[in-house]
Each structure stands twice: as structure tokens, then as C-alpha cells.
User: Which sequence fits this backbone?
């Protein structure tokens, strides 16, 4: 007789193949490493590794990962009533990134907690409000928790409050934040035109199309960027600049010119009208490219 298990062991936390450090040799992203409160995540030989015995499954790493590469961890379930998060609250307060998602998806504006007993949540709200000011969004507040005692005169009121309390978990990742706050750029890519050779590596590798060339323009759309750093990892000329926001940053369109190289006869893009030789031929003596490339 075959016996079936009614329960399955939960998958262990792991870093998947979507991690940019697994895909690109020179990737420098370490968002999850910086977010982890217990140093369960680290970079070893260029790859992100996760120490399962240290992991708290708090989910902080999930909300900062630009490629949703972390598995085996789910965002925590939280409880809310009206426009406030309520008890039971987690011992570790939610991150700013998670609270920003609650702010927009559920229109929450407060945390019900005792500041003296749960100072971490008070600090989390203070940090959140600093970001909300930059986003020009309403700020959160700390409100006193509801009386947890039960007496006969208030039994019906407490029952009504229990019915109104709901539970949920929010989706995680920088892509979610980008979709919820399209007016604000969390990351600000830019191009150093003195270094850029317009080889196309950066816009081909960008999974969000924050960098792209179309219609004779080099387009930089910061609101799409998740800060994965792929563009920097593949740029051999170190021409890509990636600054942290948040900031309002309109779509920029930099004019390009098309030309045909007088040496190799190949078409190429250039920043300047009237260019006669492609960057590759400019780096070689006359006639050498045909022999070596």
C-alpha cells in the first residue's frame, strides 16, 4: 500500500537563476545582502549565497530584489483595520519598501502600536514618512492600540472590531514599486556620452527597457528602472551611471545619428553628425580591422 503525505515540506529559501549575479559575471547588485538584518545573505566568489540556518524569513530581501530571484520565502501576513495595521504585529517591523506597497494598495495610513513596547515600528513609520515626503504622499501616524481586555459591557463592540479586522500579504519586489509609483524614479540611469560607444549592450540587456534606442533617439526612462545594474555590468566603457532616487525624472530622449563607416562599410550609430568611422575602426590603424576582426 502506498502512503501519501498530506503535507509537504516547505521549500528552503534560495537564490534562483534570475539573480543578476548568477547571469552576469561583472554584476554588482547586492540589494538583498544590504537589506538582510541578520547577514543571512552574502556574496561569495561573486555569487549571492543564503545561509538557511540564519534566515528569519522576514521577507525584507524580497522587497528590494530587482528580478524576483529569491524563492522559499513569502511576504508576511499582516492584519489591518480601516486604514491602520493592527496587532498582532511582527516583532521585526516592516521595511520601508513593504510599507510603501501597503500605502498604495490598501490605502493604509497608520500603525496601531505601543511606542514604548514596540519602538521598531515607530522607527519604521518615521523612515517611511521621510520617503513619503519625497514622493509627495500623505504621511503615516502611530495610533494607540485597541484595548485588548474583554468585559461584558464591551463584548459586542469587540466582536464588531474583530469582524472588521482583515489579513493580507502584499506582492513584493522593485517591479511592484515601479508599477505603483510610476511618477517617481527609484533609480536614475544616465549615459556618459564621452565614454559611450553606442554598442547597444546596455539597452539589449535591460529587462525593463529603461534604456533603449528607437526612432533615432537614445531613450532613458528612469521610471522603468529597477536598479538591477545589468547595464553597468555589460558596459566595457564604464559609460553607464546609476544613481539612487527617489526623484521625479522625465523621460529623456538623446538624439542619435546614423552613418556608414568609410573603412569597414558597416552602419553604426553616433552621437555626432558627420562621423565617418565607427568606434571599432577608430581604435585600429587603417586596414587592420579587416585582418584581425
Assistant:
Amino acid at each position: 500500500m502506498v502512503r501519501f503525505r498530506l503535507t509537504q515540506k516547505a521549500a528552503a529559501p534560495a537564490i534562483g537563476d534570475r539573480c543578476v549575479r548568477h547571469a552576469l559575471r561583472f554584476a554588482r547588485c547586492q540589494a538583498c545582502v544590504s537589506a538582510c538584518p541578520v547577514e543571512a545573505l552574502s556574496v561569495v566568489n561573486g555569487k549571492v549565497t543564503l545561509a538557511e540556518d540564519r534566515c528569519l524569513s522576514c521577507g525584507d530581501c524580497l522587497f528590494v530584489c530587482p528580478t524576483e530571484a529569491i524563492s522559499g520565502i513569502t511576504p508576511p501576513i499582516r492584519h489591518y483595520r480601516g486604514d491602520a495595521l493592527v496587532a498582532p504585529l511582527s516583532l521585526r517591523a516592516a521595511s520601508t519598501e513593504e510599507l510603501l506597497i501597503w500605502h498604495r494598495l490598501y490605502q493604509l495610513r497608520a500603525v496601531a502600536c505601543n511606542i514604548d513596547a514596540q519602538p521598531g515600528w515607530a522607527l519604521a513609520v518615521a523612515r517611511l514618512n521621510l520617503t513619503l515626503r519625497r514622493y509627495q504622499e500623505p504621511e503615516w501616524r502611530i495610533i494607540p492600540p485597541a484595548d485588548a481586555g474583554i468585559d461584558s459591557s464591551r463584548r459586542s463592540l469587540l466582536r464588531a472590531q474583530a469582524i472588521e479586522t482583515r489579513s493580507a500579504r502584499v506582492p513584493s519586489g522593485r517591479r511592484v514599486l515601479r508599477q505603483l509609483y510610476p511618477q517617481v524614479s527609484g533609480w536614475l540611469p544616465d549615459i556618459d556620452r564621452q565614454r559611450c560607444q553606442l554598442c547597444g549592450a546596455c539597452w539589449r540587456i535591460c529587462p525593463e527597457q529603461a534604456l533603449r534606442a528607437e526612432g533615432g533617439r537614445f531613450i532613458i526612462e528612469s521610471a522603468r528602472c529597477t536598479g538591477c545594474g545589468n547595464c553597468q555590468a555589460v558596459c566595457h566603457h564604464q559609460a553607464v551611471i546609476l544613481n539612487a532616487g527617489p526623484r521625479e525624472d522625465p523621460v529623456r530622449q538623446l538624439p542619435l545619428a546614423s552613418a556608414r563607416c568609410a573603412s569597414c562599410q558597416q552602419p553604426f550609430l553616433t552621437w555626432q553628425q558627420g562621423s565617418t568611422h565607427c568606434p571599432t575602426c577608430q581604435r585600429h590603424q587603417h586596414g587592420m580591422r579587416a585582418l584581425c576582426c
